[in-house]
Amino acid sequence: MPTLFQQIQAGTLWDFHGGIHPPVRKSQTSSKPVAQLPLPDRLYLPLRQHIGVAGRLIVAVGQRVLKGEALTSADNSMTVPVHAPTSGVIHSISQHTSAHPSALPEPVIVLVPDGKDEWRERRPLNIATSSRHQILERIQDSGIAGMGGAGFPTHLKAGMQQPVDYLIINAVECEPYISADDALMQEAPTTIVKGIDILCQLLNPKAVLIGIEADKPIAIAALKAACSQREHYYVREVPVKYPSGGEKQLIQLLTNKEVPAGRRPADIGIVMQNVGTAFAIAQAVLDDQPLISRIVTVTGETLRQPQNVLALLGTPVSALLDFCGFQSEAQQKVIMGGPMMGFTLPDLAVPIVKTTNCILAPTRDELPDNGPELDCIRCGQCADACPATLLPQQLLWYSKARDPVKLQEYNLFDCIECGACAYVCPSEIPLVQYYRVAKAEIREQQREALKAEQAKARFEARNARLEQEKQQRLARNQQLAAARQQAQPNENQAVAEALARVKAQQAEKAALQATDSAKDHQQILAERELKKQQAREYQAQKQAAAAASVADRTPASTSDSSLDNKAAAVAAAIARAKARQADADSSPTVEQTSAAEPTTPEAADPRQAAVAAALARAKARQAGQTNSTMAEPSAIAAEPEQQDPRQAAIAAALARAKAKQSVTATVETTVTEPVAADAVAMQEDPRKAAIAAALARAKAKQSATPAQETAIVKPAAADIAVTTAQQSLAPDTGIQPDTAGNDDPRKAAVAAALARAKARKAQQSTEHQTTEQQLSEQRDSEESKTE
Amino acid sequence: MSFKIASSPHHHNQRTTSSLMQWVALAALPGIAVQAVFFGYGVLVQLLLAICTAWLCEALILRLRQKAVLPRLLDHSALVTAVLLAIAIPPYAPWWLIVIGTAFAIVMVKQLYGGLGNNLFNPAMAAYVMLLISFPVQMTQWLPSVSLQPVALSPLDAFCMVFTEYSCSGFSLSQLQQGVDGSTQATPLDSLRQDLAAGMTLAESLQRPVFYSFAGAGWLWVNLAYLLGGLLLIQQKVISWRIPAAVLAGLAVPSLLFWLGSAGASPSPLFHLFSGATMLAAFFIATDPVSASTTDKGRLWYGALIGLLVYLIRSYGGYPDAFAFAVLLANMSVPLIDYYTRPRTYGHKAKRNLK
Question: Shortest Cα distance from B338 to chain A (angstroms)?
Answer without folding.
Answer: 10
